[in-house]
Automatic annotation (TrEMBL):
Keyword Transcription: yes
Placement of TPR repeats on the sequence: 249-282, 283-316
Matches recorded under InterPro entries: Homeodomain-like_sf, HTH_AraC, TPR-like_helical_dom_sf, TPR_2, TPR_rpt
Originating organism: Maribacter algarum
Keyword annotations of the record: DNA-binding, Repeat, TPR repeat, Transcription, Transcription regulation
Pfam families in the record: HTH_18, TPR_2
Protein name per its UniProtKB record: Tetratricopeptide repeat protein
Stored PROSITE patterns: HTH_ARAC_FAMILY_2 (PS01124), TPR (PS50005)
GO molecular function annotations of the record: DNA-binding transcription factor activity; sequence-specific DNA binding
Amino acid sequence: MSNSIDNEYFCDGLTEEIINALAKVKELSVTSRTSSFYFKNKKVTSKEIREQLGVSVFIEGSIRVSKDTMRITVQMIDALNDFHFWSETFDRNPEDVFAIQDEVSLFIAEKLREHIGHIEIEDKLVEPIDVPIHIYREYLKGRYYLMKMGYENTVKAISIFESIIQKAPNFPNAYIDINHGYTYMGAMGLMPAFEGFQKAQPFLKKGLELNPNLYRTQLNLSWIECWQNWNLKKAYLHANKALEIQPADEIYLTISNYLTVEGKLNSAHNYIDKAIELDPFSPMNIHYKGFLLYLQEDYNEALPYFQKALALNPILPFPPLYIGECLLFSDKNQEALNYYKGLNGVSINDLTQLGGITMCYAKMGDIEKCNEKIRELESYLTSEKMDKAFNFLILVNVLLENYDKALECIEKAFENHLPLILLLNTEPILKPIRNLERFKKLMVQAIPDNNNYKSQKKYKQILLSDDEIETHGSALKKIMKEHKLYLNPDVSLKDLASYLELPTNYVSQLLSLGFQKNFSEFINTYRVEEFKQRVILEENKGLTIMAVAYDSGFNSKTVFNTFFKKIEGTTPNSYLRMNRRN
């Protein structure tokens, strides 16, 4: 609550740190920054927050900052019943910002534990940073612009971080965020990918020397291993290290990227769904869900995701390309052409409009206009827009059935080590050349673990060995614990198979031989256990038995009563009476 923009940077930064601190508590699922900030300065009801974020509890508050005083007001609200559990006010000196962040985070965590039950909380959730407060305030200003995304905001953020490095050369966060900014611009096509990665590298190296244990450090290392070094094994290693440090939606998004590169689209859906669960208003998460549906040629389903991503962030460079493609490949050729013609420069370094129009002419068979646009695209092959130009020339030549020309472009892109190579593996436009030897050779070189071309595993159809049962059974138990698939009333055997990356028949045998259960028995056993834990909670006393059952994943009263009695040997009513008495 201040008219000063500098205080807005400070307040946003403090809020982000509290979100990150709470996310370190393993038992909590904390909505990420983008979606939390979506409600900033908006009048919304508890019901709207509950429905849009899928949360049971939310924290809200305000910060007033003056020269020598900071008043933080925090309150916790039950999103289901719309009532305040508590409210607290902290009057502190702004100079003690790190201690304040830790104090407020621990206070919230303790109050959550009192409300929702036992959770493990560390003695400290926010580590102090060894920089003067005025430097830290400047850093938060840089973070403010970095998180707004886009070319101009990112350049401004990098400039701020570079200034901070001059004043505080041992502050690792500034180096990591410069790396993040350049990597973002390279990956998004806001500058040539090679240039972005090259500029980012020394800053990451220095950040690593100063602090290798920041999750963003590991995530940035992961991006470099994938998009610059084409080493997916190491990319996964760093991504998983980042996940161990702090589960964040951008890490799940990243792993979804890598699974897509390998052609494992069903598994990629699982990870992007987790990212969306943590940050449902993240434009990139929403865009990527649409992108996966586009890759599976489900254009009608994909289109609303691209449109929503663009509505959340109008300067996001990717959605306009795929909005046009969804129209084009739904046989709405003229509508797609009109859409691309109506774009007024997606970003300063983007060829979306030119490339989109060229694809439309190719698909519509207007060869003369298409060739004219192709010559224009080719003029960019010696410019900083080379990677974008190659991408569109590959797509257009396949649409024109000029397969040799398309393969020549792919080979040149491969020679230049352009990241677009990793995205060709699953591009639906390239289906006509996917089985050509020249194409397969390049894809296997770039992506050794390529799901489209590697030989498929042979699975036993009759019996599993004891080792196989133990290995896959342990993996399944871990998946059920971490992802709680049983809470989805529509979960299927195919969903389990997707998470395990095994054939459905194989998983059916695993349940039968490893758990002595069919799929329904297996899933509903978890649901019954979930019900037993939920129904005795103080917060659920006002709910009916069936309301708790539905919250536990059941979608049928008959199924619930039947399974409960079968597993527990008594009715839900009897169980509840007995346990509430105890």
